[in-house]
Amino acid sequence: MKISLHELQEIENIRTKEQNLIVLLSKNGQKSSFFDVDLQTILQEQGFGGEEGRFLEIKNFAGFKSVYFVGIDEKNLSSARAFKNELIFRLKKEKNIAIMQHAGQDTNFFTEFVKTFVLRGYGFNKYFTEKESNKGLSAETVKIFVKNKSECDLSAIEAQIGGIFVARDLMNEPSNVLTPEAYVEEIKKLEKLGVKVTILNREQMHKLGMNTLLAVGDGSNNPPYLAIMEWEGGTKGEKPLAFVGKGVCFDTGGICLKPAQGMEDMKFDMGGSAVVVGLMNVLATRKAASNVVGVVALVENTPSGKAIKPGDIVKSYRGKTVEIINTDAEGRLILADALWYVEKHFEPKMIVDIATLTGAITISLGAERAGIFSNNQDLIDKIFKIGEETGEKVWNLPLGEEYNKYLKSDFADLRNIAKGKGAGSIVAAKFLQQFVKESTPWCHMDIAGLDAMDNCFCIQSGNPFGIILLDNLVSSFE
Ligand code: BES
Ligand code: ZN
Ligand code: ZN
């Protein structure tokens, strides 16, 4: 689905009985000269006063098939994202959808609605052979009518939408299709946008000593890869911002096999990597004025005769030895080597890693927020604030010294899960912290659970949470 931009006057050209129109209306709000009827009276009769979150469909109105009045509170940006999914469901089969900006309506607010509407309209329909089953909106283009075309730049939201759709397509692919190898081919497509892509295969990683990554990846018949994506939009030679993503194309748990119920959602365990790939796509599309490197570790976690077993000890790329107590805590093992790779080869001025790392984070924060853990208060404050503004919200959890003892092993430098119970997400973050330099501002974002849940931007699972947030984070450095 795409969007096209038009001047408000041009709306006359589409005023037909096949056309649906969406109009935003604030409580006791704008009088519109567009509708040559007493709109307030009609809406009052229908019992609709533009209340936030509510909408009203009036069929056969003002020369259109249906006009949808969506209630908003223009003073509050989040209300541009508060409309009910029912709006999407009603418009599902419609080919002609337009959204109109009132003469007095704030452009920033209006474009936030447009972005949210289009993002919620996404459906992954590749494998339905009957159109009836399709999800999401069927309109190919949503026409946007604005009061001043030259003052309304939709390119930034179009870039975000494009990158998010790429990431969702990747997440929704099943693991029999999106093997690490097939994923690499998808990542190479970023080269067309000017991103430099470097791929390390298992032999190259073996030579480097990336053994915690290979300990996971070598259990599968589908070999592991590390993909490095570089966008150089900033000053030549300036150290990059780095993003590192967990790309477990399927997480069975390995020898510590997961229970069957809900295991199908583990195809989303590459969600963090999809966020990084989607983000690189956004940055290259909007030609971000920053140097950014994205690194994703792509593996499958499966049991086999070659798979790691509880009690096995491996030496990480950084040199620290790890006793693998639970093979289902694999995300931290692959990220450990990916984080050290980015530290060693890029000396980044900041690292954010994104991962569907622990079920425990869903217990803490549910579907509403991602957990963040960081060694730098400024970075926490920045990310938190951007989250509140953009709608991809986070919550900071602790990372204190007092948790170090949880990771002490009897046989190696570290164990990959805690000795006792509790603090599962914090312990995972503490593990990752062992693989970044103390001097590097670093933030770990745990998006487990969010990958398979809906939010204001995404109503079908396969949700690459964080692209909007991180795109804004990069902008804040530009
Ligand atoms: N991929 C899972 C985390 C996960 C759980 C993502 C639920 C999405 C939904 C991760 O690899 C994992 O299995 N973590 C274990 C860690 C445990 C063994 C310490 C978990 O959360 O149970
Ligand atoms: Zn796991
Ligand atoms: Zn996992």
Order of helices and strands: EEHEEHEHEHHEHHEEHEEEHEHEHEEHEH
Q: Which structural class best describes the helix and strand composition?
A: alpha/beta
Poorly predicted runs: none
Strand order across the largest sheet: 7-8-10-9-13-17-14-15
What ligand molecules are bound, each kind once? Answer: ligand BES, zinc ion
Radius of gyration: 24 Å
**What is the typical, i.e. mean, pLDDT?**
96
Q: Considering DSSP H and I runs of 4 or more, what fraction of the residues is helical?
A: 25-40%
Oligomer: single chain
Distance between the termini: 29 Å
Major beta-sheet overview: 8 strands, mixed
Count of separate DSSP helical elements? 13
Per DSSP E runs of 2 or more residues, the count of β-strands stands at 17
Work out the strand percent: 15-25%
Dominant shape: elongated
Feature tags:
478 residues; binds zinc ion; binds ligand BES; 6-stranded mixed beta sheet; alpha/beta; elongated
Give an overview in words.
- This protein is 29% helix and 22% strand.
- With 478 residues, the chain is α/β, with parallel strands linked by helices.
- An 8-stranded mixed β-sheet has the order 7-8-10-9-13-17-14-15, with helices on both faces.
- α9 packs parallel to α12.
- The longest helix is centred in the middle third of the chain and has 18 residues.
- It starts with a strand and ends with a helix.
- The structure holds ligand BES and zinc ion (2 copies).
